């Protein structure tokens, strides 16, 4: 794994994959994609980065502990469901708003935040598993 | 009831729980004044219930509540009739006293705020039990009393005896609660009633049902464990490992009375059958004898009282099930009297303990001068317990004798039991309420003096109440015991007992009881020795059996898990896959559901064939792989090939996911393999290989056949139609798969990501444990796990 080409390419590849994962996450509602797949892509990106640069580099790049990320994702998803309380409708009923940003109508919904939560849980859980597994090899 | 009244009653139910939240805050803010302020909460609930007394006494039954789980027909609702209202008054009234008393008793204790919190939760749970209308709501509060009492009994968690007693109480009463749940569900099933008020309207349905016996046994299982009937009586005396305020409350108004309450509650719909009128008196009578004999044996004040509680509960159950005209009246009066005197006497015992430093009867004496108020309260409790005028205990005893004296030979036997039991309890009662105060002064560990007002206010108030109830017996019977007895009997009952005794058999029996009691009291030491010899002869009782039972259970589960989980991964995997293959193949063959041989799909093009061939090549490569890493990577080939097939055949979402899962599983499997330090090459023998291969083929075959069979079933596209036509309209999304995941079935997904998260945590923990152990092995550090802590 220690080839120069791989080590040079990996950060760019990972960055691209991260970007792509967010793209996949956000387009999920209308086209193939969504939080789960996006999360898996992001986790793969981190795995590639980790194989090339080592675990500590990934941990530094993530800044938060992966489980913190997963936990906040779960919290975000749950909270998205609770918003419906304020509208007196059952738990998890979707809410949509359409603010106009820079002249473009951007639909924002609790569904999106929920999906972002799913994304974070998947990234966090899976990357924490493989980081923990990989770490052992280096110590 | 009007909405505001409903809200007020539910507020009265909620206040104790509010108290549980407020007590730590109040202790921090107000310090030693906190108990006085906190006692206002149950006091308000008490006043709220007292306000309703005239209406209930006039024969009204108050119900109301809110929908809880409407789809299951479960309501959060209350039912207030004579029985539940009197109980609610006892719970909140004695509760108010107990809060004050606990404030004094626990003064200076580091965790007094927490203690009071638990106490409030316990109070709220018990209040919930007695005022619940919904059957499941009753069960929920029932179990809540078990849990909160566990916290209270085990409050002194540094002591092993406390922990054991708490666990024992939880196992017995919580287990009984589960039995009760089964009973409640069965009753709901038989009658179709979700609440008590609906149940009462069904009349004889339950009694006439062929399942009556089962329902009866299940209900008794709940009631007998909770109310400590023989042979489940052992947990109750052990429960006095709890601080005295808990014992005083638990034994007087709450928890142990819940079982009696349940029996009384169900008497109108379950009572008056041959089964009911035999089993209840029998168990009650035995409990009465066992309890009172065990009580005589003790020298510890709290132990003495605890065993008399067992006896009293037996008496109540016996009278509830007696089925004689006036038996219910006796039971009801005795219940109220018992709550008042037992609460008072326990608080007196706690006061003596608190002020002298000992609870041992043989080391106490002559305290009357030092503790006059305590003495007065103790004496009041003892007189009431002994059934002497002018206290309400007298009315209770007269009622019991009156009911039993007019009956058959069957009743006569129980009359004898009741007389002996009463006499013994009389002796024990005076042993606690009189003996420590009279006679020569004995030097005690602490210099005895009167306790603080916080502590004697409770027993004094209870004593005065018991006195007033007897003096104004007309009012008392009309407003409390009468309506209560009516609710239990299911018809209007009027109680005429008063302090002026009628010359007759009951009075003669009372005199007889008193004579026996005085003889026993005078020779308490001899009686104790006799009881001691008796029980030593009898050998170990249920308390020891319980330990044996728990030990046996632990040993059994250890054996079973050793057999089922030998700790070898191969065994688990083999067992799992053999079961999977067996389930699939056996069910397919035995139900005649084998699929027809499929034809080659018409739209299968050359490109598909190529990818299919790739998958086969990957498979061959896996089988031929000589080391594990190659096997893992080549396994990925098939995964990718299948993913491409998904993509080509119109399932892009699925194929995306498959791609990513394949990639990550190869990465993670590789990491796991390198961590496991396995021999890189396959070292299995040929036989083993063939065996493993057979299992693999069987599993694969099973799944293939199942899937082929599933696709042969005519496709029902109702859901497809629904999602296609509504996903854009309702959920504003074109991608049906994603819309289902995040919108239509969002709550499912929430559950699933929670599972993903927890799985992640579990795996992390497993890895840490291994890492910790090996680090320990290498470096010999004391606490290797700390090193592993990642920021």
Automatic annotation (TrEMBL), chain A:
Source organism of this protein record: Martelella endophytica
Any one GO CC term of the record: plasma membrane
Membrane topology: Multi-pass membrane protein
Keyword presence, Cell membrane: yes
Entry-linked Pfam families: MnhB
Protein name: Monovalent cation/H+ antiporter subunit B
Family: Belongs to the CPA3 antiporters (TC 2.A.63) subunit B family.
Matching InterPro entries: CPA3_antiporter_subunitB, MnhB
Residue intervals of the Na+/H+ antiporter MnhB subunit-related protein domain: 5-127
Residue intervals passing through the bilayer: 12-29, 35-58, 70-96, 116-133
Intracellular or extracellular location(s): Cell membrane
Keywords on record: Cell membrane, Membrane, Transmembrane, Transmembrane helix
Automatic annotation (TrEMBL), chain B:
Keyword Transmembrane: yes
Span of domain NADH-Ubiquinone oxidoreductase (complex I) chain 5 N-terminal: 69-115
GO molecular function, one term: antiporter activity
This protein's GO CC annotations: plasma membrane
Topology with respect to the bilayer: Multi-pass membrane protein
Keyword set includes Ion transport: yes
Keyword annotations from UniProtKB, A to Z: Antiport, Cell membrane, Ion transport, Membrane, Transmembrane, Transmembrane helix, Transport
Pfam families reported in the protein's UniProt record: MbhD, MbhE, Proton_antipo_M, Proton_antipo_N
Transmembrane segments: 6-27, 74-101, 113-131, 167-191, 211-236, 273-296, 305-325, 331-352, 373-396, 408-432, 453-475, 495-521, 569-591, 606-623, 630-650, 656-678, 690-708, 753-769
Domain MrpA C-terminal/MbhE: 689-768
Record's protein name: Monovalent cation/H+ antiporter subunit A
